[in-house]
Specification:
Largest sheet: 6 strands, parallel
Structural class: alpha/beta
Length: 169
């Protein structure tokens, strides 16, 4: 049985750089022959457990074995909407024993390193296996082109290396 992947854009902010980077990861997985789901938190009410979350669990979260979190920096951490998603799902069914890969994005210099550390702690608490190669993407606003792509060769190289490692993980 092959692993099921889902890329999660970790914010609900419309038109964010996060969703642009998440879409890039999704495209790169497809180019590697891996079908992956895609989850944007835009327009989803995750503040309370509800029928939307239950449907999301059934259709996407429970069947996924490997999650790719693309996470923006919000006040030195990660977005509360992502934490609400984690908190309001059936934790044992959705997260326990599954694998996660983390990429941070920010317009600053550190690529959300603190947020990735915070999220790692939460995911470990949820009994997830977090891939060691956590990639901070700094100055993301300067890396994304008008066509909403990243063309910087060194950035694409490290993203592909991260994905190749996670596929083997």
């Amino acid at each position: 049985m092959s692993d099921t992947y889902t890329v999660i854009s970790g914010t609900n902010r419309p038109g964010s750089n996060t969703i642009r980077v998440a879409k890039l990861y999704h495209q790169l997985l497809q180019a590697k022959g891996i079908e992956a789901g895609f989850l944007s938190l835009e327009g989803i009410n995750v503040t309370l457990r509800n029928t939307s979350i239950e449907a999301l669990e059934k259709e996407i979260l429970i069947p996924t074995q490997k999650f790719i979190f693309i996470v923006p920096e919000y006040n030195g951490s990660f977005p509360g909407v992502l934490k609400s998603l984690l908190d309001n799902t059936a934790i044992e069914k959705v997260w326990w024993g599954k694998k996660a890969m983390l990429t941070g994005v920010s317009t600053g210099r550190a690529g959300n390193l603190r947020g990735l550390d915070h999220l790692t702690g939460v995911l470990h608490y949820l009994k997830m296996h977090v891939f060691y190669n956590k990639l901070p993407i700094s100055v993301v606003n300067k890396l994304i082109t008008v066509e909403e792509r990243i063309e910087d060769v060194s950035t694409l190289k490290v993203i592909n290396e991260q994905l190749d490692g996670f596929i083997q993980f």
